[in-house]
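User: Look at the shape:
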Amino acid sequence: MPTPQKKILFCLAGVLSFVCALGTAAAIGTQLWVKGTILCKTGALLVNATGPELEKFIGEIQYGLFHGERVRQCGLGGRPFQFSFFPDLLKIIPASIHVSVILFCMVLIIFTLVGMGFFLYNAFGSPYETLHGPVGLYLWSFIACSCGCLIMILFSSEVKIHHLSEKIANFKEKSFTFKTHSERFADSFWIILSCSLVHFLNALLIRLAGFEFPFSKPKDSGTATGAADLMY
């Protein structure tokens, strides 16, 4: 059976994994991935707006993975507009990248829950199978951490390289042209970053529990021990 120290560390890792799974699931459904402001370029040029006058042509935009909202400002007050990525915006956004972000979010939740289960299994049991023990814990933590990193890389490239905010701002616009004035990643994006860091922390907790890293050479290879002794 695992020692009290291992039980505490594995229970802590399991709780952190559960919190990450809930946070990721909540983040997927929100529109708090990106917040920014958009400038009505056409209107500002027509009146040659500068300084305080320019504020009348700066609207707001925020969106997530499925839906969002923008406030259109062209000198006559704000006009809110709700939009959805599916199916409205699929023709103007990099759909393959956007769908990949959503899929990796699903994979992140699944492997986070799998990791949580194995952490709790190791806390209260004596697993003999390799994937049920330390190697499996490292594996699930590595996969979940990698998914979190891929989500951030893909979504950042979609926003910054493919100018997602600007494409959304000009969606269904015929008379006016909008340009991104400012943008920043919002709460849901940073939740994914926090979850990736938590999975990295879980790997350190596994090591702190007394397990060697996978494929590392044992210090004393001549000592014959049973399977349970190798695990705990």
